[in-house]
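Issue 218. Parser rejects a valid record. Input:
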Amino acid sequence: GLFTLRAAIYLSVMGPQGMRDVANLCTQKAHYAAEQLTQHDRFEVAFNNGFFKEFVVRDTQNNVQKLLQQARENNILAGLPLGQWYDELQDCLLITLTEKRTKQEIDDLVNVLTR
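Output the parser choked on:
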């Protein structure tokens, strides 16, 4: 019940324009992160569909677990390894960005993953 109340308060305070602004921020930040990651040969966007705030990157070195460990060592939750559910996506990582992430946090993520 408290989660429903919290969601209702958040939605009423944000209003329609606020929700559009948040959605726009999520999209901009996710696309920024994808662009920064794919500037490195190690990563490519796995699917050519458009995306909102979640995207899948393929690690061309096929070492997703090592990437996640590096990120954990830097106190970063980098993403979700998709290989645990889909054998054909062993080299893929689902990354999600919301309006709460700063540019510096996104840059830190990219720096850790591209070392």
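Fixed in the parser; the record now loads. The first strand starts at residue 43 and ends at 45.
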